[in-house]
Design a protein that fits this description.
8-stranded mixed beta sheet; 4-stranded antiparallel beta sheet; alpha/beta; single chain
Length: 415
């Protein structure tokens, strides 16, 4: 009665069952997986945000497949303001608004792939890709990120993963959960491979603005600070990592939205920026516009509010970056007093990867932590880490809860 594409295992896994059991007995769990930024004590400018929804224009129905021009122009201003060093800026006519980056992925998958075609995706990375690909009848083929003095794309494996059915490669910039950006040399390699194999790039940049100055790693043998990811002359004053929205070398679809940029996941505004060789980009936009026109999923009130909501990013991003930096500093303080667990280098985003001794599977360890320590972390296999010994911690929770939670995790490994 149901399609094979939705033939997922829907019963709770052991980890979820353990969390439910602990909550059912009334125990307070210290949640180090928190991902909802609206519930971690940040201060929004309520008056300005609510006023953005008071215009009479919101009562007018003006269906535009790509989205209202004023909203798309606000997106182009965002890219122009953040990448001032770039001599190329996003064109409002090459932007399609969507309700989420997930919807953006579905549009691009439909644009590029026939049933059974393949898309390359990084590993480790966010698990949502599998569900999106299943729904679009697309096959995902992983390519590894490797950790050696920081995270790097394994280009040898990426090229070996390309087949006659490969249509695109996904890049997450910065990656979730590794926090690693694509470096200039890697971007050149990606463009070269995609040009040679006639592939598109699909780039997820939802965490782009959350570059961290504090990138030291507690792992022995790895360099401290920016030296492994920047030129020797680079410092905390260097230019931020640029967006793929300016990449002209190959057909590129850049996805982002207000969920992370303005820390407003409930507003449901995202977009696709299309760029690359002129003829390819124009053809892609013609087809994307038809896809978007078929759904017309964006609602008018939120589109009229986009310019104001994007402006709000400055205030709220400062708060969130301060929170992430403070939690990262606290984690490193606690790690410095022991030699068993190590934090891997992080360049951006909201998450940290903790390397721990392999005494059991990551899932068994996470279950033990929630049952015995009442602290919630994600096991590495949730993000397709290739082996055990990795825990993923969110860095946006309130500092005192984060401090206690990290302490409980590290206490489990005391000699």
């Amino acid at each position: 009665m149901f399609s094979d594409r939705t033939n997922w295992r829907l019963s709770p896994n052991r980890f979820t069952q353990a969390v439910e059991e602990v909550r059912a007995r009334g125990s307070k769990i210290l949640d180090l997986t928190v991902s909802n930024p609206t519930r971690v004590g940040l201060e929004y400018d309520l008056d300005v945000i609510l006023a953005a929804f008071s215009s009479a224009k919101m009562l007018d129905y003006d269906p535009q497949a790509k989205g209202l021009l004023s909203a798309r122009q606000a997106v182009t201003r965002y890219y122009r303001e953040r990448d001032v060093a770039s001599n190329v800026t996003a064109d409002a006519e090459n932007i399609v608004l969507t309700t989420s980056t997930s919807e953006g992925y579905s549009f691009v998958f439909r644009l590029l792939c026939n049933p059974g075609d393949e898309v390359l995706v990084p590993k480790p990375s966010y698990p949502l890709f599998e569900f999106l690909a299943d729904l679009q009848d697309v096959k995902l083929v992983p390519y590894p990120l490797i950790y050696d003095h920081g995270w790097q794309i394994d280009f040898h494996s990426l090229e070996k993963a390309v087949s006659p059915r490969t249509r695109a490669a996904v890049v997450v910039h910065p990656n979730n959960p590794t926090g690693s950006y694509a470096k200039p040399g890697e971007i050149e390699m990606l463009n070269s491979i995609c040009r040679k194999r006639d592939l598109a790039l699909i780039v997820d940049e939802v965490f782009l603005d959350y570059e961290l100055n504090h990138v030291a790693t507690a792992a022995p043998g790895y360099p401290v600070g920016r030296s492994s990811t920047r030129s020797p002359a680079a410092s905390s004053e260097s230019e931020p990592y640029g967006s793929f929205a300016h990449n002209q070398d190959v057909l590129t679809f850049t996805l982002s939205g207000l969920s992370k940029i303005s820390v407003l996941p409930q507003m449901k505004v995202a977009w696709i920026v299309t760029n690359g060789p002129r003829a390819q980009a124009a053809s892609a936009m013609e087809r994307l516009e038809v896809i978007a026109d078929t759904y017309l999923s964006m609602n008018a009130p939120i589109q009229w509010a986009v310019p104001t909501l994007l402006q709000q990013r400055r205030r709220i991003q400062r708060q969130l970056l301060q929170r992430v930096e403070a939690n990262l500093t606290e984690m490193d303080r606690q790690l410095s007093s022991q030699k068993i667990c190590q934090r891997l280098e992080i360049e951006g985003g909201w998450y940290a990867v903790l390397r721990v001794p392999v005494m059991r599977s990551d899932e068994e360890l996470a279950i033990e932590l929630v049952r015995e320590q009442c602290v919630l972390v994600h096991p590495g296999h949730f993000y397709d880490f290739p082996g055990d010994g990795y825990l993923i911690l969110s860095l946006i929770g309130e500092l005192e809860e984060f401090r206690q939670g990290v302490s409980r995790v590290l206490n489990c490994f005391q000699e």
